């Protein structure tokens, strides 16, 4: 039986007299990956705050599974370049963790050996993986990721999304991914929800491009924005997206999303 972690039911939200959300419905089940997309100003951040319990809706209801644990990975995190902050110390904010737990979290996200590195010295891919490791230290049932591939090149993005898929399968957690970038929808996503203050449309990544509401919002070439292609190759990518020669002999498949490719 499917376990629903969060159910948003006909939720509306007014902020300063402005209607930010209008009768929105959204569910995330255990073991499911849901991608929430939409243009800037669509209300995605407001909806996330409602899901996390930071805000209370003006209308409608939000149901959370009893004892639900969740973690949030922010869109960006500014760290003062003049303040030395090692990865190990960063993982202890705001709650201190045992060294073994931190090492295990870094290993899970493919970032082993970074404990003593300064946060300011990390590449974009390394930084995002450390943020993910910090979120996983709470062992969440629901993982909320806000623009998780920001600052990572396309190859690094594919590796990162494959990692999220693996974590979902191994831990059985639900994942809500928030993005305005229509040029990357992970192939592992179970459902895509398109938001523009209300839910315009929803469906699998393969079917979203054919939805009239989606095309009306993003234009006649919108179908290309959710075009998914897969390729197999005989190498792996490191944290920054560069080829990892140590794992080059192990071929693997990526799910990429690219506007220049035909839909699979």
- Strand arrangement across the biggest beta sheet: 5-6-7-3-8-9
Q: CATH H level of the domain at 1-69 and 140-231: which superfamily? A: P-loop containing nucleotide triphosphate hydrolases
Low-confidence sequence ranges: 227-237, 245-264
Q: Give helix and strand order, one letter per element, not per position.
A: EEEHEEHHHEHEEEHHHEEEE
Question: In a few lines, what is going on in this structure?
Answer:
The protein is an alpha/beta fold and 264 residues long.
Task: Walk me through what this model shows.
The chain is of the alpha/beta class and 264 residues long. It has a domain of 161 residues: 3-Layer(aba) Sandwich (Rossmann fold). Helices cover 26% and strands 29% of the residues. It is built from eight helices and 13 strands. The strands form four sheets. A six-stranded mixed beta sheet has the order 5-6-7-3-8-9, sandwiched between helices. The chain has a three-stranded antiparallel beta sheet with strand order 2-1-4, with helices on one face. The chain has a two-stranded antiparallel ribbon with strand order 10-13. Helix 3 crosses helix 4. The longest helix has 18 residues. It is globular and about 50 Å long.
């Amino acid at each position: 039986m499917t376990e629903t972690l969060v159910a948003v039911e006909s939720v509306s939200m007014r902020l300063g007299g402005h209607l930010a959300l209008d009768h929105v419905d959204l569910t995330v089940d255990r073991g499911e990956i849901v991608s929430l997309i939409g243009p800037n100003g669509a209300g995605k951040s407001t909806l996330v705050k409602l899901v996390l319990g930071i805000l209370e809706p003006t209308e409608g209801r939000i149901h959370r599974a009893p004892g639900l644990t969740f973690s949030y990975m922010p869109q960006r995190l500014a760290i003062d370049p003049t303040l030395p902050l090692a990865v190990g110390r960063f993982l202890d904010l705001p709650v201190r963790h045992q060294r073994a737990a931190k090492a295990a979290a870094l290993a899970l996200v493919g970032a082993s050996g970074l404990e003593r590195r300064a946060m300011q010295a990390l590449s974009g891919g390394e930084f995002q993986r450390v943020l993910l490791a910090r979120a996983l230290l709470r062992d969440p049932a629901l993982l909320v990721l806000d623009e998780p591939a920001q600052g990572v090149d396309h190859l690094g993005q594919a590796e990162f999304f494959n990692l999220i898929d693996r974590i979902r399968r191994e831990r059985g957690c639900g994942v809500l991914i928030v993005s305005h970038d229509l040029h990357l929808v992970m192939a592992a996503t179970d459902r895509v929800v398109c938001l523009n203050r209300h839910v315009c449309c929803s469906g699998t990544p393969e079917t979203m491009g054919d939805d009239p509401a989606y095309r009306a919002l993003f234009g006649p070439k919108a179908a290309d924005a959710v075009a998914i292609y897969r390729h197999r190759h005989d190498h792996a990518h490191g944290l920054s997206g560069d080829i990892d020669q140590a794992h080059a002999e192990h071929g693997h498949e990526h799910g990429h999303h690219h506007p220049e490719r035909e839909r699979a």
